[in-house]
Amino acid sequence: MSAPPFVDAARAHARLRPDDIAVLDGEARWSWSELDRRADAAVAGLAAAGIVAGDRVGLIAASSAGAVAALHGMVRAGIVAVPIGPRLTRPEIAAIETLARLRAIVGPDGGVALVEPPGRAAHSPIALPPGVAALRGVAVIVPTSGTTGRPKLVRLGAAQLDASAEAWSAVLPPATGWLLSLNLAHVSGIGIVVRAARAGEPVVVPTLTDDDPILASLHAARYGGVAVSHISLVTPQLRRALETRDDAPPPAELRAALLGGGPIPEWLVTRALAAGWPIVPSYGMTETSSGVVATPLGDAAGRPWSAGRRLPGVDLRIEPEGGEPGAPTPPDTVGEILVKGPMVFDGYENDPESSAAALDPEGWLHTGDLGSLDVEGWLRVIARRDDIFISGGENIAPAEIEAVLAGHPAVADAAVVGMADERWGAVPVAIVVFRPGAGERPEELQAYVRERLASFKVPARVVELGAIPRTPSGKLLRHSLPALAESTRASARRHSAAGTTRIEAGDGQPLAFRDLSGPPGAPTVVLLHATLSTSRQLLRLAGLLRPGARVLLPDRRGSGASAMASPAPVSIARHVADLVAVLDAAGVTRPVVFGHSFGALMALEFAARHPERAAAVVAYEPPYLALARPELIERLGRVGDDVAAAYAVYGAAAAAQLFVRAVAGDAGWEGLMLAQRASLEAEGSGALADTAMADMDPGGLARITCPAILATGGASDEFYVPIADALTHAIAGSRRVVLSGLRHVAPVTDPGPFAELVAGVLAELRP
User: Fold this and answer.
1) What is the pTM of this model?
2) What residues does CATH 3.40.50.12780 cover in the chain?
């Protein structure tokens, strides 16, 4: 019996097997009859709002049973579903609204919000019956990941989605259940729903967990009565699953783990196979309705470098630069990967120029990816053509260097970007995230690459970040990398000069601090950074203080080089204990402690809990909520829970964005430049660590015996003023200072006044 088309699948299974499980979402276990009913209900809600077949409707694509039902209902009714990533900002959603001419947006709870487009599209209403319209027209419009700039809107019909599922069915073993491991904003997430529906097998919505959502979800599905046999992963998901469980094998019922969505390192394939994962490397893109090339089960071990061979119904060829279009290409020739088949899209929405550039008159999709085919038809994917840059006449593919760096045991993540260079034209610069406790220095990573790649591919610089900006599906946001590499150029030099010391706290958590030596016998100043920040951002202030003091710059647990293997909220007592551990390791007895924002709160708590260890405290705008006005306590008291929920569902970047919006308002976030957003998102784990503010001890402030200065900025948020005033009354002998014209970020952007303030304290302490 052939599989039903996706538009009819839920209804067909509701007739033939009404009580079988169709969707498992936590405690919710929907049968096929229930899914069919819910799909109808979703369409009824849209119809009541005036939506008709052919209209474009946004679908907030959070992983949920409701989103699965809405997709089924919209596609079979001929309403064009436009998945919207749940992490997108309001301006990004507004751009999709305009480009796709949305008539409404369906929220995660099924609510319908009407949108006023620039004008009613000419395609609506449609005279054909809804089911026929869905089969012949556009079913979904999927925004691309936008890794290099503004996303395009890919039109896919139900027939193309069915063709993709049919091609995959020929190379995969029969399924007993699919994990919705990628949400519906990802074409592979849509593909999961389509394949499961056609086969009549359930879709399982992932379990929310901080450590390993993939393995946790596979095990949890068992208790819901579903044996998940198939999943579709991107590289970061697989790597996380392996690392969090020390390369533990997956459940025995897992039969196929599709791997794609970007570059696939050979070492990761080898490692996953050794751990017993049934890996199926693949290659595809949104424009091809999911993968078009795959490695059959059992073949990856012999060819870990390959994405596989073409699926049934797919035509595949390589077109070298300057070659004759359509001419035969010798095996192993490098060129652009071209794809043709019934699953290939027919153009971008409202973008005829890009459509014409991507699809030639014969229907070949020019992918923009470089690769080669060997004599047996195995595909090697090399890089995005647009990512290639030239250094001294040599072509360099960043993905090749990234794969080598990612194989280093000290590297948690890596990205490479070409930066302008007077001598070579451009040079590779590596941005890396080190694993907690790693002691490697940039020159050691450069030597590691030099052993494995040609010398011109060795990164000229290595800069360190707490996280690298990626899309929800794990693709690099390459357009953010040049700004990040440029902004960290000076900081990288200072980091090298200062040196980084890594120690372990009493519970084994790695901690890192920078140590800038001062004149012999000079006093010590400790600089504590803000939330969504690292010690690196206080290096300018440290440089101003260094002529008269030794300066320590710790990265707090959860931030920068003190990142946690399993990010979680951190108590204030734990933060203070970590600071004591850093001081002990550095041989410092009684420093002057300067803190900015949350760092200022920590400086005060340190002086209150260890009065014998603090020589003086300078606290700039601490968010000491226990002393804030009741309405602020109520509003901001919820931020910790909201940040934790955002982190659990969408990761560090979402947690960072939510935190900024909660503290500075939507305008505060939307007014940031792209590089600033990327820098903040990279430290989202710091927001998770800080915002709980567990075990704050305002009563202990009376124990502070050292000189204390409470400072605010004259141009900063007034939220901090009453808190600083209250702290001044709570701490005997403290002083209140207002720095005219300065904003909350001033210790980073305008460190001069703070250097003068701390230098004045040092002068007062001299015998």
Assistant:
1) 0.64
2) 6-380
